[in-house]
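Lab notebook, bench 4. We co-purified these components, and the gel suggests they stay together. Before we commit to crystallization screens, I want a quick structural picture of the whole thing.
Request: model the full complex, all chains together.
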Amino acid sequence: MNKYVHALYDNDSTLMNSIKVLKNHDFNIHEVYSPFPIHNLDKILKLKKTNLSFLSFIYGFSGFCIASILTWYAMILDWPQNIGGKPSFSWIRNVPSFIPVIFELSIFFSAHFMCISYLIQCKLFPGSVHKNPDPRTTDNMFLVEIHIKKNNTEKLVNLLKENGAMEVLIKEK
Amino acid sequence: MSNHYESPIRKPLILGKKTLKNITDDILKPIENKAGNLWWTALLISILAFLWGLVCIFYTIGTGIGVWGLNRTINWAWDITNFVWWVGIGHAGTLISAVLLLFRQKWRLSINRSAEAMTIFAVIQAGLFPIIHMGRPWNAHWVLPIPNQFGSLWPNFNSPLLWDVFAISTYFSVSTVFWFMGLIPDFAMIRDRVSDPFQKKIYSILSFGWGGRSKDWQRFEEISLILAGLCTPLVFSVHTIVSFDFSTSVIKGWHSTIFPPYFVAGAIFSGFAMVQTLLGVARKVLSLESYITRNHIESMNKIILLTGGIVLLAYISEFILAWYSGNPFEKFIYFSKEAAKGPFWWAFWALIICNVIIPQFLWIKSIRRSFFWSYVIAIIINIGMWFERFDIIVLNLSHDYLPSSWTGFLPSFVDVGIFIGTIGLFFVLYLLYIRAFPVISQSELKTILKTENKKQENE
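Here is the predicted assembly.
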């Protein structure tokens, strides 16, 4: 059975200081839960940069390609017509009037697929079981989850208490 | 985000030295407590208005759009006026959320959630009008490029009306996603607080299992920023494309290159006026006085002044061009001498008074910072912007290139009923929203709490 410690804080500055101390003492911080995003926390925890912006570009580019193919297929290949004296026999000559549709579809694809990717990456689904171990972490408390090795529990608990933890709980799972 | 620095000489955006817990309590108050009589009365009136509109819509669909006040000359009137008006109102929400997020404007934080909700509800009303104006709404799916039983039959991608389909549906769906993504952490906050098992179940489903892990927040901030970046050009593109419905035509008074920027500015002008109107009520009814302060009202009034100035500039250029072109038909456009003294003089002067003269009072600081006067002026601007769209459509169509077809316009009771019905539906949605959803983005607001409390210490 793995043992781990939950330390609760009521302030983001205290939490940040405490995390720095824990890092200096080489403790393994497994997770941090907070009611709002904390600036620079990802750098201190050495979290990898997210790839969502790159994915968003790829999805947007796909939308651009699909819209270009759609307008070309519908208006040039499948059903070319002379509308208002403007014959549609060449996509490139008609492209100015296709720009609104191409633009909107690029944004549509980029936004929607990026959000779907985000939900999948974070494992967020309608009705899935909540992931925070303490309900107060969505309100006003900050929680650090630390995995502990053998014989360092006492040192860790003392360190947490010295650095402003309001509550320290030892759990097993 | 949390240790964001703001100069202490700036006015505080959260009053009363709140704690993190206070913010949660204040936002949960309307959800946890029972609704007051005022809310029930407002909901009842809104439902009645909506039902009246619904009856008029069914009557229109059952009988045909001949029951409207349209005629052969004026074939777009209240329906398209209402469409453009509602789309315009929808603009401020995304502007507050997305554009002001990119500009790091922290005053948006207390009002962005309500403004986003307003956007979505307004765009729903807007979308209704082109669909019922089709006359055969059961064929509405024909505007989408989907395979059909008629062989090679596609919508015309050269048409601004089809651009509208793409622009409005993209705007609606992306704004909804932007709104919902921001709501997830707040739903989780409600899930973890409410005791009622039914409420707990509903908010558990809506919160998607959010836990507030550091990695989730990192990704959340990234997508918020990218969505803001994607929504910003959308704000400008949607009303630009709506203006193309007019400006790509050859109708005098419509065929104008100034229309795209003029429509965008007008949309933001009317959108902010509607945000003022809604927040003026929400602030009192939901006791959000500490979060929606005079500084918020003043900042919005400054944007109203700016966009109102751009709109005024467009009016002036339309008027000068009508006069300078020497074209006899241009004399009858919505911003011309003839319009000012013709059969629709009342609509012309309503526009001037509501959109040009009254908003100038906002230059006076005491009025700009007054809740009451801001509210009154906002309602007047809403009315004025409706008249602007009415003038553009009806005045320009009433005097076309063929003097023998010149005619007037009178709305039928169905026109009026549908419009009032959409106002009813809008308020039904808004009233239900303020009771069930967190009206302030608590997770974002909490990030500036320390700075705001520090400012109050320095005062």
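Strands of chain A lie at 3-9, 28-33, 82-83, 86-87, 142-147, 167-172. Worth comparing against the SEC data before the next meeting. Chain A has a mean pLDDT of 88.
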